[in-house]
Write a structure and sequence with these properties.
239 residues; binds NADP nicotinamide-adenine-dinucleotide phosphate; Rossmann fold; 7 helices
């Protein structure tokens, strides 16, 4: 489905990012894996390091990606931070750190990527949001607010870049499994599994396959949208 396409995935050595990169590659894309502090362990993975809060590092990442892949058709803005803190304990520095790691990073990467895609036949940009962008969880006031901003940025970017053939969409996951989560947060896993209509946590590959759809020509008339990938949890009534 993505044969001949080139893709950049940010935070590609994290849990969900690795799944997104794997699914894009499985569908034929050549993938550049971005990381900040955890380099990939497989020697054959194309990778670039950058702190995405810094404009010069983002520009270097995009230039190196274009140079090494010979094109840039797909960008997945997956990198993000997700600390848990009660609102009453959040400082202005905590709030700003979550916005910097979530919104500033996607703003900088989207703008730099779109500048390259304009005049090169367009492309597809995907932001990894969260169901918390519309349904906040306790301890996540900064995170939920930042993900809501990311969803609006996605719509605004779709509006401005559509005439250049660049589609911009979001994927908003629910709770995604990671190694050790059952031991670290047993009550959260049990509650999710009991209440989600599809009866399980998501996997990084579930998120990755939604990205494959939004990156491919199957979604050619879809832009500015938010695809929720949560096993149906967000349609469950609270009463
Ligand atoms: N896990 C879930 O249940 C869930 C649910 C909904 C949405 N999400 C979203 O999915 C995305 C991935 O989450 P995850 O659970 O896979 O988390 P993760 O394993 O912690 O991965 C996050 C990635 O973001 C990178 N990153 C963070 N700040 C960065 C910065 N300033 N510059 C460059 N890279 C930066 C990290 O890089 P390094 O580790 O290399 O430093 C890491 O690769 C996030 O946007 C998150 O909000 C997660």
């Amino acid at each position: 489905m993505l044969t001949g396409k080139t893709a950049l995935v940010t935070g590609a050595t994290g849990g969900i990012g690795a799944g997104i990169a794997a699914r894009l590659a499985a569908h034929g894309a050549r993938v550049m894996a971005h990381y900040r502090s955890r380099p990939p362990t497989q020697p054959d993975v194309l990778a670039v390091q950058a702190d995405l809060r810094k404009p010069a590092e983002v520009d270097r990442l995009l230039a190196e990606t274009l140079d090494r892949l010979g094109g840039l058709d797909i960008v997945v803005n997956n990198a993000g931070v997700q600390p848990v803190q009660p609102l009453s304990e959040q400082t202005l520095a905590d709030w700003r750190a979550v916005f910097a790691g979530t919104v500033d990073t996607a703003f900088l990467v989207t703008k730099a990527a779109a500048n390259l895609m304009v005049g090169r036949g367009g492309g597809a940009i995907i932001a990894i949001g969260s169901i918390e962008g519309t349904l906040p969880a306790v301890g996540h006031a900064h995170y939920a607010s930042a993900k809501a901003a990311l969803l609006m940025h996605t719509k605004a970017a779709a509006l401005e870049y559509g005439p250049h053939g660049i589609r911009v969409n979001a994927v908003s996951p629910g709770l995604i499994s990671r190694p050790g989560i059952e031991d670290a947060w047993p009550e959260g896993v049990a509650s999710w599994t009991e209440h989600a209509p599809l009866g399980r946590l998501g996997t990084p590959e579930d998120v990755g396959d939604a990205c494959v759809f939004l990156a491919s020509d199957l979604s050619r008339w879809i832009t500015g949208q938010n695809l929720t990938v949560d096993g149906g949890m967000s349609v469950r009534p609270a009463w």
